[in-house]
Automatic annotation (TrEMBL):
It comes from uncultured Pyrinomonadaceae bacterium. One of its GO terms (biological process) is inositol biosynthetic process. This is Inositol-1-phosphate synthase. Its EC number is 5.5.1.4. One of its GO terms (molecular function) is inositol-3-phosphate synthase activity.
Length: 438
């Protein structure tokens, strides 16, 4: 047993969760927390609420729930805030999103109507397929960032919050490459004043959060707090940040299945993936520029898991194709088809077919909760900068410079739980259990 863990400040008082975007994911998240608080639902899909953690030897039978092991904020202490380009309340937005049954939304009407979004920072060039009226204006992007910083401070004071976290749950922006203005904070801030087109709205939110010492989690594949300027700002201001793009449907299946193929040394010739979805996310991703941002995030997973450079006989030059098709009748019920061509002993070929008829926001909502609670825990434990132990939740985990991201979901979960054990001074689980004899 380690003698001492990390000194973690208690989770006293209210935790404000600020959501960027009050669409399908955010309203499903908020409604779910409200339903759980009322005792009308279970937090299924949430590791922080339902997951356990083994302590000590298997024979000790000591497996407390994670929420009882580390000091997480209580669900009753959560307060929600949001920004959105539409002025609809969370109740109206939930009705429009069509994820939840109407009767369930009506049962939560009072709680959802009380959440009305603040005016959002939005730039049409980054999301061409949608537009809204609830949008901030300013002479440049620094002024917009300052308005967000003021929103954050006002929300914290008015709601009586002791701590805050911010979660981006808005649309995927167009693909942009990192450039010189993203390399250091001085250049980035000058670009804000210059109203530089290379600074996306998600970067402005990330900047405002980090300047306000608020942890930031990015649920979309946008280039945002993963640029050097903002990574350095997070470290300088002692704020935790993590990866980007929630790992929900098809990519979740890849990070479960690909490690299994690799563990048995089965080869891969090709993996064809296509999705159909009809919600706002599908409409946005129907634009090729926005799809490229998502494609970059989705394509990287298999390469890192299978390591073709290490196993060229099994994985060199495998074909990997990803398609997303906007199909309005499907709504939020995304369908992911995968056709996987593998080969085994003596090179004999086999196939795997997956048809995952999932509910995108239902899978994403518990990730919002877990990330908010874990990021708050990290800040109270004085953990700053990139939190690689939260890679479990992302298609594109953020890592220190020079390190490749770990995408194997089972390794990610082990790292997450060992981090929690470390924080509490418990022995890390290695699964060795070796005995020797003379």
């Amino acid at each position: 047993m380690v003698e001492k863990g990390v000194d973690i400040a208690p989770a006293n008082g209210k935790l404000g969760i600020l959501l960027v975007g009050l669409g399908a994911v955010s309203t499903t998240f908020v409604a779910g927390v409200e339903a759980i608080r009322k005792g009308a639902a279970q937090p299924i899909g949430s590791l922080t609420q339902m997951g356990t953690i083994r302590l000590g030897k298997r024979t000790d039978n000591n497996c407390p729930k994670i929420k009882d092991f580390v000091p997480l904020a209580d669900l009753d202490d959560i307060v929600f805030g949001a920004w959105d380009i539409f002025s609809d309340s969370a109740y109206e937005a939930a009705r429009n999103a069509g994820v939840l049954e109407k009767s369930q939304v009506e049962d939560l009407r009072e709680q959802l109507e009380s959440l009305r979004p603040m005016a959002a920072v939005f730039e049409q060039n980054y999301v061409k397929r949608i537009t809204g009226e609830n949008v901030k204006t300013g002479k440049n992007k620094m002024e917009l960032a300052e308005q967000l910083i003021a929103d954050i401070a006002r929300f914290k004071e008015e709601k009586g919050c002791d701590r805050l976290v911010m979660v981006w749950a808005a649309s995927t922006e167009i693909f942009i490459e990192p450039s010189d203005i993203h390399n250091d904070l001085e250049a980035f801030e000058k670009a804000l004043y210059d109203d530089d087109a290379r600074i996306a709205p998600s970067m402005i939110y990330a900047y405002a959060a980090l300047k306000s010492k608020v942890p930031f989690a990015n649920g979309a594949p946008n280039l945002s707090c993963d640029i050097p300027a903002l990574t350095k700002l997070a470290e300088d201001n002692n704020v935790p940040i993590c990866g980007k793009d929630f790992k929900t449907g098809q990519t979740l299946m890849k990070t479960i299945l690909a490690p299994g193929l690799k563990s048995r040394m089965l080869g891969l010739e090709g993996w064809y993936s296509t999705n159909i979805l009809g919600n706002r996310d599908g409409e946005v991703l129907d634009d090729p520029e926005n799809f490229k941002t998502k494609e970059e995030s989705k394509l990287s997973v298999l390469e890192h898991i299978l390591q073709p450079d290490v196993y060229p006989d099994l994985y060199k030059d495998f074909a990997h194709v990803v398609r997303i098709n906007y199909y309005p009748p499907r709504g939020d019920n995304k369908e992911g088809w995968d056709a996987i061509d593998i080969f085994g002993w003596l090179g004999y070929k086999m196939q795997i077919k997956i048809d995952f008829m999932c509910r995108d926001s239902i899978l994403a909502a518990p990730l919002c909760l877990d990330l908010a609670l874990f990021m708050d825990l990290a800040q109270r434990a004085k953990m700053k900068g990139i939190q690689e132990w939260l890679s479990f939740y992302f298609k594109a985990p953020q890592t220190a410079p020079g390190l490749y991201p770990e995408h194997d979901i089972f390794i990610q979960l082990m790292k997450l739980k060992n981090t929690l054990r470390h924080l509490k001074g418990e022995d890390l689980i290695t699964h060795l259990g070796l005995e020797y004899y003379d």
